[in-house]
Each structure stands twice: as structure tokens, then as C-alpha cells.
Amino acid sequence: MSGSASIDPERLVETAVQAARQGGEALAGTLEALPVAAYATDAEGRILAYNRAAAALAGCEPPASETRWCVTYRLYDAQGAYLPPEACPMAVAIRERRRLRGVSAIAERPDGSRVALAPHPTPWFDDEERLGGAVNLLIARDDPRYHAFLRSEATRCRRLADSVGDARTVGILLAMARDYEARVRCASPAP
Predict the structure, then answer these.
(1) Which of 33, 72, 76 minimizes the C-alpha distance to 54?
(2) pLDDT single digits (tens) 37-51
(3) Which InterPro entries match (predicted)?
(4) Residue 22, Cα to own-chain centre: how many angstroms?
């Protein structure tokens, strides 16, 4: 998976959710195979497992089961305001029992360096619809593979818009394409 030219976050999230439902070695092995930083929590937000990419992104190895909601050393919102752990995207997703998308965050490492992220926190539920836990992908916003995915989604939306006759649907698809393109522009370094 790591050699692909594009990162499809939703496909990767689904892979991680399926592994989280299995737990144990299946979860650890699947997280490690993902081409981005990823981790899983239980229903209370305690870290169950994370991959080496998550530890590298965080700049430390958080003690699993003692850490809640986030693997990063410190987290900030897109404007740079500190986010306490209970306000991080993963905590919100677990508390509200819904996936979060389109959120930006800035992770600070113990050495003070920072990385802008596109987190993808996603709760998962068992067969009785009880919250089982959550998985999160932490994709660096400047990752060219992520940009390739966003651009391909914008192209797909524009292609679909060209193929439908309903004006309302065309408008929605073109708005989605513009949103994907805006996310690439926001994540790209200034020239």
C-alpha cells in the first residue's frame, strides 16, 4: 500500500475499521501496513494501537492504554490555538459518535517542530450498534499523495457534473470539486 501515488483516506479508514473490529494482531498488523499515520482507540478513547508512522509524526511513542484520544504530544487548531486532549478531533468524534471530515489541526512534537494535519477520526460500532472504539488517520496536509487524491476527486466530480442533466446535482458536484481544489491550495506551500 505504501508505494501508491495517491492516498484515499476513506478506503484506508474502512480497512482500519475492519481491523479494529477484529482487534489484536489483526489491528496492529493492519495499522502498520497503512501508508499514513494511524491509530485506534477503545470506546473511552484509550489508545489501543498505533503504527510507526504515527509515532514518527508525533515525535514520540505515547504509552498505549495510558493515553487518551490523541497520539500527538500537543495539538492545535488550524488557527494555532491549543486544543486540550478532550477537545481534539478524535475526542469529539467519539463523544458525538460520528466521523469528522474537513478538519485541520497542527501537531507539535516534543522537539517543538510542527506538522499540519488532516485528521480522519472515525468511530466504529458493533453489530448491536454499540460504540466499539474509533480509528484515526493523521495525514500530513503537505503530503503529495494526499494532494493527488484530492485532485483526482475534484476531477471525478467535474466529470460526473458533465454527465448529468439535473442543474441542482451539477451545482453540488461542482461545489464539491471546488472544495477539493481549495483543500489542495490551502495545504500547498506558498510559492
Answers:
(1) 72
(2) 999 999 999 999 999
(3) PAS-like_dom_sf
(4) 20
